[in-house]
Amino acid sequence: MSQAQLLQVKNLNTRIFLKAAVVKAVCDFELEVLEGEILCIIGESGCGKTMSMLSLTNLLPQRAKITSGQILFNGSPLALGDEKQLQTIRGSQMSYIFQDPYAYLNPLMSVGEQIQEVLIVHNKLNQAESKNAALELLDVVGLSPAQTYFSYFPHQLSGGMNQRVMIAMAIASKPKLLIADEPTSSLDRLTEIKILRLLLELNKQRGLSIILITHNISIIEGFAQRVAIMYAGRIVEIGSTDEIMKNPQHPYTIALLECIPHQSSEKRLLKTIKGNVPELSQLPEGCTFHPRCEYVMEECLKSEPRFKQITQTHFVKCYLR
After folding, report:
1. The pLDDT value given to residue 306
2. Which of 142, 174, 206 is the last residue in one of the domains?
3. Is the same domain home to 159 and 297?
4. pLDDT computed for residue 291 by the predictor
5. What local confidence, expressed as pLDDT, does residue 38 receive?
6. How many Cβ atoms from other residues are within 10 Å of residue 249's Cβ?
7. Residue 179, Cα to own-chain centre: how many angstroms?
8. Contact call for residues 17 and 61 (beta carbons, < 8 A)
9. N or C: which end of the chain has fewer CB within 10 A?
10. Distances in whole angstroms, Cα of residue 282 to Cα of each of 24, 54, 229, 232, 278
11. Alpha carbon 6 to chain centroid distance?
């Protein structure tokens, strides 16, 4: 039985209007997510991963604005200028887990009270009901005994524990889609594995769709069904995890995979990608990756390539293919 489509994004463009320049944060962004699917968005810092996801519910910085595009969620179009409609989606049907839990948790409230607050606002529970539900959620995310952790403040918990609290808050309203933005980047490797396993369990037990944003391509095997590679505000390749890992087509994807350390008896220098992600206010003409690409051709300098289909599920923007 095929999975139903939960999210579809078409030609999404987001700009940040500064005094000195216009930043092309998200360019012709296209993506779909199926019900119960885990999809990873991979790319270096500055590629527009976070801005593209914040655009889904218009949670943008003050000078940022969606200039065009269409978003369908659960079969219905989102009116990105309709704040009232978006407030019914944010936190209830579409939830976020952000990179640094300390920046989003209130230091003056216990973690249990903060989970309660979400339950009262989104689920309309009373004090007693919300406390019982908050205790259950603390158990779900592995913070037991829940009664003890309920009264702790964020500064009394480790980074990994606070991230579990953020996950509890994000799933409290039983959303259909969870967007996890670099949720393990500040954690040690063992804690990272535990958090990823927790997200995987929530996906399997609750049928929760997950978009994981990360710059670490080595964590996706065994976790995600599909992977989107993002560069300079746009997706340049998308396919199943197997296709991306074993048959990458875009030179950027290939370069990212070559940067992953491998266990080997042979001693060799870790490969890096030359150059940097371009300033999104000063994008090069043509393919945005061409200044860093070893396969650059004359055509790459003139116009941006369109998606080409490699298999039924594998697409790439590259003139080489």
Report:
1. 95
2. 174
3. no
4. 95
5. 97
6. 22
7. 5
8. no
9. N
10. 9, 22, 21, 10, 7
11. 15
Q: CA 76, CA 63: separation in Å to the nearest integer? A: 27
- Whole-angstrom Cα distance, residue 144 to residue 112? 12
CA 257 – CA 251 distance, rounded (Å): 10
Whether 264 is covered by a domain: the verdict is yes
Domain boundary at 150, 174, 198, which? 174
Please list the ranges in the chain whose pLDDT falls under 70.
1-2, 262-268
Amino acid at 252: Y
Residues 6+ positions from 271 with CB-CB distance below 8 Å: 255, 258, 259
pLDDT recorded at residue 99: 82
Q: Would you mind telling me the total number of residues written for the chain in this entry? A: 321
Counts of helices then strands in the chain (DSSP H, E)? 10, 12
DSSP secondary structure code for residue 76 in this structure: E
Q: Is there a single domain that holds both residue 164 and residue 190?
A: no
Range of the domain at 143: 106-174
Question: Hey, what are 216's tokens?
Answer: 């670490």
Q: Are residues 304 and 202 in the same domain?
A: yes
Instruction: Tell whether 101 is covered by a domain.
Output: no
β-sheet with 64-73: strand ranges across: 22-34, 5-17, 64-73, 76-77
**Cα distance between residue 93 and residue 89, in whole Å:** 5
- Tokens 């049928």 belong to 207
Q: Which helix (H) or strand (E) element contains residue 237?
A: strand 234-240
Give the max Cα distance, the chain. Answer: 67
Residue 76's pLDDT is what?
87
- Classify residue 222 by burial, with Cβ atoms within 10 Å: 0-12, 13-18, 19+: exposed
Comparing CA positions, the residue from 75, 94, 118, 97 lying closest to residue 177 is 94
